[in-house]
């Protein structure tokens, strides 16, 4: 079984977040991405790009999934902290 962890590719102003679809779930899923505790987007894919971040800044990201049923509860995939890269001087 794959671990439900987040994988992040960083630049000075973006973070590309990747994760695996939970194997035990066979239904269509939607994912909600939170940045520093606030919802920043939704997707039906297993990746999401957060843009317009500050360089060399620490952020916390959390991803939850839910089925497309109205009564479905959100389930946390994982949460992680990261620091964006320093801006390169020209």
Question: Can you give a write-up of this model?
Answer:
The strands form two sheets. This protein has a four-stranded antiparallel sheet, with no helix packed on it. A three-stranded antiparallel sheet has the order 1-2-5, with no helix packed on it. With 90 residues, it is an all-beta fold. 0% of the residues lie in helices and 49% in strands. It is elongated and about 50 Å long. The relative contact order is 0.31. It has no helices and seven strands. The chain has strands at residues 7-10, 15-18, 29-35, 38-43, 47-50, 58-67, 75-83. It has one domain (7-83): Sandwich (Immunoglobulin-like), CATH 2.60.40.
Cα distance spanning the termini: 45 Å
Beta strands, count: 7
CATH H level: which superfamily? Immunoglobulins
CATH-derived architecture: Sandwich
**What does the overall shape look like?**
elongated
Order of helices and strands: EEEEEEE
Task: Name the beta content range.
Answer: over 45%
Averaged pLDDT: 90
Residue stretches low in confidence (pLDDT < 50, at least 5 long) are: none
Helix content: under 10%
Q: Briefly note the structural class of the backbone.
A: mainly beta
Count of the separate structural domains: 1
Strand order of the largest sheet: 4-3-6-7
Question: Which SSEs are present, and which pair or pack?
Answer:
Blueprint: E1 7-10, E2 15-18, E3 29-35, E4 38-43, E5 47-50, E6 58-67, E7 75-83
Antiparallel strand pairs: 1-2, 2-5, 3-4, 3-6, 6-7
Short description, anyone?
It contains no helices and seven strands. It has 90 residues and is mainly β. β1 and β2 (15-18) form a beta hairpin.
């Amino acid at each position: 079984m794959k671990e439900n962890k987040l994988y992040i590719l960083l630049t000075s102003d973006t973070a590309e977040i990747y994760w695996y679809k939970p194997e035990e779930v066979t239904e269509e899923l939607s994912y909600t991405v939170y940045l520093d505790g606030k919802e920043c987007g939704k997707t039906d894919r297993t990746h999401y790009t957060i843009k317009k971040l500050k360089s060399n800044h620490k952020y916390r990201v959390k991803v939850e999934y839910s089925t497309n049923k109205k009564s479905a509860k959100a389930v946390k995939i994982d949460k992680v902290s990261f620091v964006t890269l320093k801006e390169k001087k020209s």
